[in-house]
Amino acid sequence: MLAGLQPEHIRPRRRRLKHKQPEGDKEFVTSFWVSPSDITSETLDQLWDSDTTATVVTVRLIPRRGGTEVSAWVRYHSSGRLRKEVWAGLNRLTGRQLVAVSASLPAPAVRSPLVVPGRDLREDEDLAVPLSPAPPPRVEVGART
C-alpha cells in the first residue's frame, strides 16, 4: 500500500510528494481522483502505467441508503515528474497529496480523511478492478520450414 514510502523521507508539495532515501534516488509521488462518470472497468484498467515505479489504485465503496457509492483515486510513484499523457483525464488532488496516501491505507476511520466525488454503483453493474497491469499481448511465431 505504501509502495516503499517512508514517512520520515517525505516532503509534501502542492501537486506531489517528494520522497528521498538517504542513500537513494528521489522519487515523485502524485495522486489523482477519477471523475464519477469515468469509474468503469475500462478506466480502472487504463490507470496502470508502465512508466511508473509503482501504481496504487484505490476504489472506495461506501454503503448508502438504498445502495452503494463508489469513488476512486490513483497514486503514481515515478523517478521524475509525470508526463501529461499519464494523467490526462484525471483530476489533481492539489494540496491533498499526503491525505490521499493515508486514505489509501487499510486503516479503520469513522470518516475518510479524503473526500472525492463518487457515484451510485448500480445493483446489476459489474465493476472489474484489476490487481496489476494487463500482461503484454502474446505474439505467436510460426515454425520455420
UniProtKB/TrEMBL annotation:
Region (Disordered): 125-145
Protein name in the entry: ESX-5 secretion system protein EccE5
Organism, scientific name: Mycobacterium talmoniae
Source organism phylogeny: Bacteria, Bacillati, Actinomycetota, Actinomycetes, Mycobacteriales
